[in-house]
Specification:
2 helices, single chain, four-stranded parallel β-sheet, alpha/beta
């Protein structure tokens, strides 16, 4: 069965700074690729941008973010190649019809 967090998860390329008073987590591939300003927590799936490492860390990072009691999680798309496609597919299914941004 597919894991889908109870915390609203948005899978989106759109950039935004979370609204004041909202606790939003960021899930991204690697450090430096995304602005972290305004996010309550950030989880990177690979220090060097490895899609293999990212795939192995995906569900643990989602569980960690969900355990923080956030208002929502913003997940950034991964490169549409190899394992990146599989990660994007999992995130799309986990985040369908949930919006955390403006």
């Amino acid at each position: 069965k597919h894991y889908s967090p109870q915390t609203p998860l948005e899978f989106s390329r759109k950039l935004f700074v979370p609204e004041t008073g909202r606790r939003i987590g960021l899930l991204a591939l690697q450090p430096g690729a995304e602005p972290e300003e305004g996010f309550s927590a950030t989880r990177y799936l690979s220090a060097e941008g490895s899609l293999r490492e990212a795939a192995g860390n995906l569900f643990q990072a989602l569980h960690e973010l969900e355990a923080l009691g956030l208002d929502g999680i913003l997940a950034r798309p991964f490169p549409e190649e190899g394992l990146g496609r599989a990660i994007n597919d999992r995130l799309e299914r986990a985040g369908h019809s949930k919006t955390v941004g403006p």
